């Protein structure tokens, strides 16, 4: 038997420990390198927010997202797997609904050693509430700004000062119309407008779904000329999105958050959709960008109109909220019908355009100006 020196023994035990515990810091790098052949480098990552939104992408003719399942620790217990095509060019995560689920799932995904996301395009592909001023049930919208309208002070509307039009007041300010003075950093994200315009071109190539039930419901909005787009057939629209954990309904809150969007984006943002995740997803992506894991200029925010944010003339806010949901089906279908055009457009145009990236002409980043550029909004 050969003689073992104490030092060699210690080193041997250490090396054995490290190699058998790939989750330790030291071994992580090594195992990442050794498994780099199997690291997936998606061209497009579809971000779905809940189960039905995720399912519209399965069993489609264009590609098979169920060819590869990758369990990622930290995802929602309901959606523990990322789904990918066999070649890994297209992947999808389902985050779970609302801001906390979305932020945690995205943060976990961005830290997963199974993926290299440095060149990946992210397509937020979800349904939303929609303003009848700019769209309708089944409309497909692409946002430049996402505004966290729920992150404000609130006084119950029955107790507001006589001169306040709403109970929502930007944090750190003392009136609804004053710019916020207390900024947390997640209030506003601006994405690549040049990329957005390309995505819109791709999506306009889709034949959107519509149904008799959606047509009948949107016809109620025809009595108001302000809601002309609400009464018209669905189309592809460029307009911005509002994030709030609070699923609200009503003309007054819609008006208030329309104002919040304008205020927080220094007059550039155009409010049209409402949802519960986008600022959370974008917050995770921005932090990923700050450590070089992703490029924030490769993010597309697509939302389709599932229900109206406010009632038609003569309807109550409650009846709008509890309405039967005539837009849910077309909204889900159009997530896929428009979204797949965007995915295919990026994958097919990879070598010519998308591999090197679409140069943004606008500021791309957050309200705290964490990324370089010339912001047109923020304090
Ligand atoms: C991936 O998971 C789905 C269910 O989420 C399943 O239908 C499919 O067969 C799985 N694919 C593989 C390759 O195991
Ligand atoms: C990820 O991919 C990029 C581009 O191909 C490459 O430069 C980078 O080294 C990769 N990152 C890791 C951690 O392997
Ligand atoms: C539109 O779709 C057709 C057929 O699917 C395709 O050949 C064409 O390149 C697409 N155009 C755009 C702008 O995506
Ligand atoms: C929309 O989808 C529904 C449900 O799949 C289908 O019955 C209907 O024919 C579709 N309409 C159009 C215009 O594609
Ligand atoms: C929104 O802003 C307009 C214009 O400043 C104002 O007249 C209206 O009262 C505001 N509405 C709400 C609900 O804050
Ligand atoms: C945005 O508006 C606020 C409030 O008027 C102002 O303080 C800030 O300088 C503006 N930001 C930019 C980038 O113009």
Automatic annotation (TrEMBL):
Annotated GO biological process: nucleoside metabolic process; transmembrane transport
Keyword Transport annotated: yes
Keywords attached to this entry: Signal, Transport
Signal peptide: 1-20
Tagged with keyword Magnesium: no
GO CC terms of this entry: endoplasmic reticulum
GO molecular function: catalytic activity
PANTHER family listed in its UniProt record: PURINE NUCLEOSIDE PERMEASE C285.05-RELATED
Family the UniProt entry places it in: Belongs to the NUP family.
Function per UniProt: Nucleoside permease that transports adenosine and guanosine.
Name of the molecule in the record: Purine nucleoside
């Amino acid at each position: 038997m050969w003689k073992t020196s104490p030092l060699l023994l210690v080193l041997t035990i250490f090396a054995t420990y490290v190699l058998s515990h790939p989750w330790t810091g030291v071994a992580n790098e090594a195992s990442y390198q050794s498994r780099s052949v199997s690291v997936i480098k998606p061209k497009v990552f579809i971000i779905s927010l809940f189960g039905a939104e995720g399912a519209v992408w399965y069993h489609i003719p264009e590609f098979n997202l169920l060819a590869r399942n990758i369990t990622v620790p930290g995802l929602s217990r309901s959606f523990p797997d990322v789904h990918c095509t066999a070649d890994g060019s297209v992947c999808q995560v389902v985050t779970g609904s609302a801001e906390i689920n979305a932020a945690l799932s995205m943060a976990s995904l961005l830290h997963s050693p199974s993926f290299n996301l440095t060149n990946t395009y992210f397509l937020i592909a979800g349904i939303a509430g929609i303003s009848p001023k700019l769209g309708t049930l089944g409309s497909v919208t692409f946002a430049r700004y996402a505004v966290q309208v729920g992150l404000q002070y609130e006084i119950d509307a029955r107790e507001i000062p006589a001169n306040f039009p709403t109970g929502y007041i930007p944090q750190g300010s003392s009136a609804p119309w004053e710019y916020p003075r207390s900024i947390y950093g997640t209030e506003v994200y601006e994405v690549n407008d040049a990329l957005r315009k390309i995505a819109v071109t791709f999506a306009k190539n889709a034949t959107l779904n519509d149904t008799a039930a959606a047509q009948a419901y949107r016809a109620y909005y025809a009595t108001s000329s302000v809601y002309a787009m609400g009464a018209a057939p669905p189309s592809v629209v460029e307009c911005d999105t509002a994030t709030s954990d609070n699923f609200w309904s009503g003309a007054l809150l819609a008006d208030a958050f329309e104002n919040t969007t304008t205020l927080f984006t220094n007059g550039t943002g155009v409010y049209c959709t409402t949802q519960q995740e986008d600022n959370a997803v974008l917050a995770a992506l921005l932090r990923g960008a700050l450590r070089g894991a992703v490029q924030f200029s490769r993010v597309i925010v697509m939302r389709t109109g599932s229900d109206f944010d406010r009632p038609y003339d003569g309807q109550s806010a409650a009846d709008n909220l509890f309405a039967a949901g005539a837009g849910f089906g077309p909204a889900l279908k159009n997530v896929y019908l428009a979204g797949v055009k965007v995915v295919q457009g990026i994958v097919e145009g990879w070598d010519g355009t998308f591999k090197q990236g679409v140069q943004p002409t606008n500021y791309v980043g957050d309200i705290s100006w964490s990324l370089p550029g010339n912001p047109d909004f923020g304090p």
